[in-house]
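Lab notebook: predicted structure, single chain.

Context: the supervisor wants predicted structures on file for every construct in the current expression panel, including those that have not yet been purified. This is the next one on the list. No modifications to the sequence; it matches the entry in the shared construct table.
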Amino acid sequence: MKKRIFFILSGLSLLAFSFWFLMSSEEPNQLFSQKVKVALRAVGHQLLLAHGDSTSLVMPVTSLTENTYQLSFQKPLSLDPSALVVVIDSVFQKAELPKDYLVETYSCF
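Prediction complete. Output recorded below exactly as produced.
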């Protein structure tokens, strides 16, 4: 009887540990994704403010694929590439995001 209880408790402990391990391994990816989305919204806000626009909306950041995100605006916005780099560097540094990243801009009408 004691062996049976020991094996049941051992099995439940192993199951609980496995569940915790699986959940904790997904959490950093989700946390990173949310952190990137917040930082990109901040980048969008800073770009709008740099153009003197405090009323237009920064649309929600969408995740296109893993580690690929899309930032869009309510109204068309012209971007100066050097200003874009400065804003992204500043916001990403504050958010403690990696310094190696790729930015692509598309003209969408």
